[in-house]
Amino acid sequence: MPAAYFVVRAIVTDASKRAAFDRWYETEHTPDAVKAFGVAKAWRFWSLDDPSLHQAMYQLESEVALHAMLKGEALKKLVADFNRDWPEVTRTREL
Predict the structure, then answer these.
(1) pLDDT per position in the chain (95 positions), as tens?
(2) Host domain of residue 52
């Protein structure tokens, strides 16, 4: 089966909070997500066109693995952690 991708797009409108968000995402959230989701690969970046837009991409081994992750408790915990630490940051998800 081909790989499947989970993409999270976050908008950090307050420019003064972007460095802290970037640090948190790099040192806490991404490592926690990689471990919890069992992803093959993860990467993230800021948009050059829109400095408020941060994207994180997670590669899972298959669509079956992606859908299992979406239904799992690990995602619920990571979403709760995100909401607790960054309540003002809006985000969307794409598969």
Answers:
(1) 799 999 999 999 999 999 999 999 999 999 999 999 989 899 999 999 999 999 999 999 999 999 999 999 999 999 999 999 999 999 999 99
(2) 4-94
Domain count, the chain: 1
- Residue appearing with tokens 């598969």: 95
- pTM of this structure: 0.92
**Please, are residues 39 and 33 in contact by the beta-carbon 8 Å criterion?**
yes
Enumerate residues 6+ apart whose C-beta is below 8 A from 15: 51, 52
CATH code, 33: 3.30.70.100
* Tokens read off for 84: 């607790």
Token look-up 């926690």 returns 32
